[in-house]
Amino acid sequence: MRVPVRTGTLKSVSSNLTGQNMRLLLTGATGVAGLAIYRAALADPDVSKITVLSRRPIPDWAKLPANAAEKTEVILHTDFLSYPPELARRLAAHDACIWALGKSVFGFTEAEYTVFTHDYPLAALRALQSSGAGAGRPAEGPFRFLYLSGRSADPTATSSIMWARVKGRTETDLVAFCGAAEGMKAHIYRPA
């Protein structure tokens, strides 16, 4: 399976997904990449609502535009492998998800790295889909799931570099899942 990939700067991530009055779900907003995406989404007039799904609150030191509080809802969630039905329904009411949650590979085994790099986003997609994300959406307006990957990710999963294999396998599985799901489309983004 060919994995469609986009590259560019982090500022272009949210602009690739926008549509008027977009409701955006964002993970990883407390990290460097996620915070940059969050700021770009706050500045985008086409994004009407941002729901940050996070393990911890946005840090006080994060410099955010004045409209952040009115445009943002933060949901603290600690188990990214499990989504209670009520939470999944709330998340499925969005138009797109940017998955920027991740950690450095250093200090992790391949099994550990696979859990938060591969299993977390797939569990979220399953919960979103089972709660109606994508259902009844027109072909030109699917629920979009954008995965922030890595520059040298290997979709063949044969690389000798562990993180490249795991991210590549994740890309392939996300694209396959969304391709088989009604009204859902995956986008893979590899920062330059």
| Alpha-carbon Rg, integer | 16 Å
Biggest sheet statistics = 7 strands, parallel
Strand content: 15-25%
First and last CA, distance: 23 Å
Sequence of strands across the biggest β-sheet = 1-7-6-5-2-3-4
Oligomer: single chain
Count the strands?
7
N-to-C SSE series? EHEHEHEHEHEHE
Question: Structural class, from helix and strand content?
Answer: alpha/beta
Number of helices: 6
> Portion of residues in helices?
25-40%
**Tertiary shape:** globular
Instruction: Tell me, rounded to a whole number, the average pLDDT.
Output: 91
- What are the segments in which pLDDT stays under 50 over at least 5 consecutive residues? 9-14
Characterise this structure.
Strand 5, helix 5 and strand 6 form a beta-alpha-beta unit. With 192 residues, this protein is α/β, with parallel strands linked by helices. It is 36% helix and 21% strand. The radius of gyration is 16 Å and the shape is globular. Helix 4 packs across helix 5 and helix 5 packs parallel to helix 6. The protein contains six helices and seven strands, in the order βαβαβαβαβαβαβ. The protein has a seven-stranded parallel β-sheet with strand order 1-7-6-5-2-3-4, sandwiched between helices. About 3% of the residues have low confidence.
